[in-house]
Amino acid sequence: MKNQRKVYIIGHKNPDTDSICSSIAYADIKNRGNDGSRYLAKRAGQINEETEFVLNHFGIDPPGYLPNVGTQVKDMDIRISPEARSSFSVKNAWELMMENSIVTLPVRDENGGLEGIVTIGDIAKTYMDASDSYMLSQARTQYQRIAETLEGEIIVGDGQEYFSKGKVLIGASHPDTMQAYIEKNDLLILGDREDNHLKAMEQGVSCIVICLGGKASERVCKMAEEKHVVVIETKNDTFTVARLINQSIPIQYIMKKENLLTFQTEDFTENIKDTMIKHRHRAFPVLNKRGKCVGTISRRNFMGMHKKKVILVDHNERDQAVDNIDDAEILEIIDHHRLGSLQTISPVLFRNQPVGCTATIMYDIYGERRLDIAPDIAGILCAAILSDTLMFRSPTCTLRDKMAAGALALIAGIDIESFAKEMFAAGSNLKDKTVEEIFYQDYKKFIAEDDITFGVGQISSMNGDELKKVKKRLLPFMKNECGHHGVHRIYFMLTNIIEESTELLYYGEDSERLIEQAFHVQPEDGAYFLAGVVSRKKQLIPALMEASQDLNG
Q: Are strands 187-190 and 168-170 parallel, antiparallel or unpaired?
């Protein structure tokens, strides 16, 4: 399941009941096809009260929120880094980096959190600082790490203790001469001469390293135990030991801990490009939602980025699509609206049928694929058809919609008329909503012949008094919103389902002229009364588009 390709099925912004329910149904259809992908229903905006009522009624959870389909860090090929702890030696880190062909090594704590990073440059610097004979003690190096680095063995002493005071010396001179420069707690690199071993311990060293396969005598071991001196034996020669010993320091001494530049798996790649270019590190650590370091990315990863794969339902207009749709790979579009402005790089399956609702197309697909429809899915599809066709009153409603709704109602075990009344009542309960929530509940943008962008919102209700109250709140809000988001004209349909009519509110330059050209009506009380007009898709938008052509022809 983890490696399955994810495909997101998503409707338009400000989703309505059809958009949400068709996404859920099509995810069910696709997942039953067993093509190796995992299909997930998503939503690009908040669900409205009507849709919430429908989902609650049939016990279905709303789709997850996906407001943006741009590529994210998690869509890149994140390089999984090997586990490295701050107690690892420089040699351990170097070997890990060589084995995995990496130049940046994240250092994690026991819970996977990022403690620091070590780079090839940091390790190289330790070699350049080899003249500092106190580096080993300043780094608090564990004796066991020293022995491992030197390919040696601890003969006397506790390997878990730390070399934390003194310097590193090579005892190449006569024992009497050594006395002049050996200080307490030093670490001494020696050959196989017993007198040198004993003299060093008499001077108070904390550790002796015996090279060239030399063995500590019984006397030496006894004195080491008495004076708590660590004795390490190694087959390496003195020069090799002197060269290797600084590689035993823990990487916490050289790693960068402060002001680490990291990215989150949820970060959008568009937002991190400039940072990567500015700092030009070879690699950047990546943290997941829980703060654990999952690996690294580099600028090279932009070349092999995996676009999100999406299927669009109930729309094919770019302005209505989820944010950054251009950065996603569209696989399919299933819709019942006019052809819009979306473009794809490669051919896609595009199913567009002249019916009143996308849910009707979903019903057809279930039949074509000979799939049983579960009662809860049947219920939400029936609800979507009733919503989009205003319980068959809209001119967009076709015989196919009515037949589909009837069949789905039987499967779901609902009475169409009584259920529709409950649903519309829930959707038109606007008392507790802000004017902004009402305005954007079902709002879409369109582009007219003169390249003018206009927005059209709609509310359908069985309660005429409620529509009158909403009108008073909407008019000043529309004035404020006009000019935002590139919209030059704003219209809002207050649709009375029972009377099958719409009171059309308007605001913006030449907005009245367009309505009067389209419907040959005059305004009354700051709005236009349109008898018999209930459909934005089939009645209002086509008329406004044609009027725009006539005025600009």
A: parallel
DSSP 468-509: HHHHHHHHHHHHHHTTGGG--EEEEEEEETTTTEEEEEEEET
How far is the C-alpha of 126 from the C-alpha of 136, rounded, in Å?
A: 11
Plot region of 390 (φ>0 → left; ψ -120 to 50 → alpha; else → beta): left
d(CA 271, CA 276): 10
In one letter, which amino acid is 534?
A: V
What residues contact residue 50 under an 8 Å CB cut-off, 6+ apart?
A: 16, 17, 387, 423, 424, 426, 427, 428
Task: Give 120's contacts (C-beta < 8 A, 6+ positions apart).
Answer: 97, 103, 104
Query: How would DSSP label each residue in 84-125?
Result: --TTSBHHHHHHHHHHHT-SEEEEE-TTSBEEEEEEHHHHHH
Cα–Cα dist 107/254, whole Å: 11
The pTM (predicted TM-score) of the whole model is: 0.69
* Tokens representing residue 346 in the block: 């490669």
- Count of CA atoms in the C-beta half-sphere (13 A) of 445: 19
Instruction: Using only the alpha carbons of the chain, give its radius of gyration.
Output: 37
Contact 411, 378 (CB under 8 A): yes
Residues paired with 56 in a beta bridge = none
pLDDT digit string (tens) for the chain, length 553 residues: 456 789 999 999 989 999 999 999 999 999 999 888 999 999 999 998 899 999 999 999 999 999 999 999 999 999 998 999 999 999 999 999 999 999 999 999 999 999 999 999 888 887 776 667 899 999 999 999 999 999 999 999 999 999 999 999 998 666 666 777 888 999 999 998 898 899 899 999 999 999 999 999 999 999 999 999 999 999 999 999 998 999 999 999 999 998 899 999 999 988 898 888 888 788 999 999 999 999 999 888 887 788 999 999 999 988 899 999 999 999 999 999 888 888 888 899 999 999 999 999 999 999 999 999 999 999 999 999 999 999 999 888 999 999 999 999 999 999 999 999 899 888 877 777 888 888 988 888 888 776 778 999 998 887 888 888 889 889 899 988 887 778 889 999 999 988 899 999 999 888 999 999 999 999 998 899 999 999 998 899 999 998 888 877 6
d(CA 428, CA 420): 12
Sign of torsion over alpha carbons 32, 33, 39, 40? negative
Domains in the chain, start-ordered, CATH in brackets? 5-70+308-427 (3.90.1640.10), 75-127+253-304 (3.10.580.10), 140-248 (3.40.1390.20), 435-552 (3.10.310.20)
Both tokens assigned to 342: 């979306």
